[in-house]
Design brief:
single chain, alpha/beta, 6-stranded parallel β-sheet, 6 strands
């Protein structure tokens, strides 16, 4: 046996995955989508999952390098989770061919927290399934030095796909899409974490 070849596979530590519920709109469908996705993520032993729900944070749209104590308290609800994450999944609807203002606001309040980390997307909407919002978010995250994975989970005409109890009526295709996206997030998350342990990322 080649002594340089391990006879057992390397066991990788779980990644910290932060799931962002990107809408705070009254009557939003996001929690239904979130419950579905979180139930799938919970089956994975390669992630530990936290949630940032923008309905629970009240960040002002006036950005500041010297936020008030009140704003600092609101940031404390979300910033540590973003900073500690190895990877992100952003759940976004599509509003007027774009993504919600609350999500852009969260993104803009932070910078280093996103850098050199992978981002996956779960989108929902009408006929487009939220994919136009995702394509715009890819550009935003590229500017923040984040890596977006190719495969997404999208729900077209989302309201019709779930029953009144919030259960997906036919989840097989969505389950497969979620697995593919999470597999890609795991690969990129470990690749980037390992690279940063050798050399700090230079933006």
């Amino acid at each position: 046996m080649d002594i340089n070849t391990p006879d057992t596979p390397t066991v990788l530590a779980p990644l910290k995955l932060t799931v962002i519920i990107g809408s705070n709109r009254d009557g939003r469908f996001g929690p239904t989508i979130a419950r579905w996705f979180l139930s799938r993520a919970a089956r994975r032993e390669d992630f530990t999952v936290e949630v940032v729900d923008l309905a629970d944070a009240d960040l002002p749209t006036a950005l500041s390098f010297n936020p008030s104590p009140e704003v600092t308290a609101e940031l404390a609800k979300v910033t540590p989770q973003l900073a500690g994450a190895d990877a992100f999944v952003v759940l976004t609807p599509e509003y007027n061919h774009s993504f919600p203002a609350a999500l852009k606001n969260l993104i803009d309040w932070h910078f280093a927290e996103w850098q050199a980390k992978p981002v996956g997307f779960v989108s929902y909407g009408g006929i487009s399934g939220g994919l136009r919002a995702v394509e715009q978010l890819r550009q935003v995250y590229a500017e923040l030095h984040a890596v977006t994975v190719r495969d997404t989970v999208s729900f077209h005409n989302a309201g019709a796909l779930f029953d009144d109890a919030g259960n997906h009526r036919d989840p097989s295709a969505a389950d497969a899409a979620a697995k593919t996206m999470l597999d890609q997030l795991f690969w990129w998350g470990h690749a980037l974490r390992s690279a940063k342990s050798v050399r700090p990322y230079a933006s």
